[in-house]
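Let us work through a complete example step by step.
Step 1: write down the sequence.
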Amino acid sequence: MIYFADLHIHSKYSRATSRDCNLVELARWAALKGILALATGDFTHPQWRSEIKDLLEEVDNGLLRLKKTRVPRVELLPNGFGPADVRFVLNVEISSIYKKDGATRKVHNLIFMPDLASMDRFSEKLDRIGNIKSDGRPILGLDSRDLLEIALETSSDAFLVPAHVWTPWFSVLGSKSGFDSIEECFGDLTPHIFALETGLSSDPEMNHRVTSLDRYTLISNSDTHSPQNMAREANIFAGAPGYFAIRDALKDGPCSITLKENAEPPFESIDGRQLAGCGSENGVGKDHRGFLGTIEFFPEEGKYHLDGHRKCATRLEPEQTAEHRGLCPVCGQPVTVGVMNRVMELADRAPGQKPPRAAPFWRLLPLREILAQSLGVGPQSLKVRTLYDNLLARLGPELNILWTTPLDDISRQAPEIVAEGISRARQGRVSILAGYDGEYGTAQLFTQSERHMFLGQQSLVPVQITRARQTRGSGGSSPGGKKREKLHAGVKPVEPPSALNQEQIEAVSVCDRPALVQAGPGTGKTRTLTERIANLLRHGKDQGGAITAVTFTRKAAGEMSERLAGLIPEKSEQGFWVGTFHQLGSRILGMFQTMGNAAARDRILEEDEAIALFRKAIKEARVDYPLARSASLYQEVSLLKQQLVTPEAYIERDDLAR
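Step 2: predict the structure and record it as tokens.
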């Protein structure tokens, strides 16, 4: 059994968190994400602790679950995984601010407790030390070493994990207020520390450069303040989930098994709770238990990855910071030294080298982010929300889709560009402008032209029939300046263009019947199509400008028009039209208008107008469907049309899904 765990989140009682961070919503989103073991976070806060007791119940393995009467009524995912299956781990993040060795230290630590009784005792002890009522992540003037001692005195089964260990301002190794080693922070209790949280701005590969960290298991969590951001980083475990199973797995370190990093997919399938097909090929046997690895944020996206000064919009690589002596080149104030610089400062191992028992990890982007970039819209847009819901309903939880679902399965449920985006994220083919000084980095999967290539140009522009003309100074009517002769019996030109290969010449030369050309990117499809049109026009195989060439993008249409203009004699009466699918649709509408069709519309409907008309159709059809969800249904129908799914095929597919 393999499952995902997110062991660092926050409740609605922490500062700057969403009001949706309640236990019911957290369980619902954990199911959607594919998280089986989820931290409660914030258990020292009195109100949150009360809600934990009211809404959750303990199970035999040291975890908690929603009481049956509290489980939200939501549509289950295809594998049957739902909020009732999510298990909670009792934990809290404590912010310790204190003086040690002549410096002010600010360190965040995660405390885990095995049961509700231990949670209460620990909270009571901290309540006598400082204020735990005002914030879900309390700030205490308590040495990290002493915090660990209190936790162990409360329960010998408790454990502590230093949080986001490289963050400049609040971490054990941070550049602003941390230490140079774990031992300096925890002293004689250091042997009780067996795991470290890498944080969003670093990943295991960066941590491997510091040999003193080899003995610690490196874990990754979302540290989310909003349910939707859950699982942007997560841990992967094998075995039956449980508090002691998780603790012991972290204590023992990575399993001595081999997992493929950055494969597509690394495993055959995963259903959120149990891995199917984990046999000898992947090195995962049924009896293996323990910590397998992590799902990682691209560390450059973290908001403290590089150095910089946000007020001056100054982003610096470590080398640049050294050149400027740690000062902002704009205002002269000290910059915030980021995670990469701090890692380099403590590093004693070359980049790319691994410890003997390094766990594998996979860098991924959140699914909503991939969908937004694929469709060219915002992550909170209706298009993204609709497609996100549809994918989960068909393919299962988000982490499954990102990590293991075959790309062919994804492309059958979404536009091709979505599968390509997931593929690029899996392979690390992402362009990232790194984060700095509290500013998140930005990841880019596609350029605008690439997006147009996959989706086609979305805008509609006035169209016109382009009359062929010769480009001056070209040396003739063909790229090579050679004279072309008439085709004989519509079979082949006497002097084909030298730039074409034999297969392309065959496609160009067929003038008496349809021809289908199938080829991949970069194989000369546009040139072949252009030469074929030119052959038809030059030798009278077309009359009255009846050739219509349809492309995906305006750029491709423009290139074809320019090429044809240089291939057709200036005095030729033959015409042609080249445009996108959208331009063709607009042209057809214009043709109806010129024919005097009074019913023809003189413009294209805006989306809100189309949805209003769609809602009217639902009313007139008298179907049992809530009008409040008509916009979502409209987007789903639009997506099905793009995928060429017929009503019969949709009904059959829906029956199979049930």
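Step 3: interpret the result. The chain has a mean pLDDT of 82.
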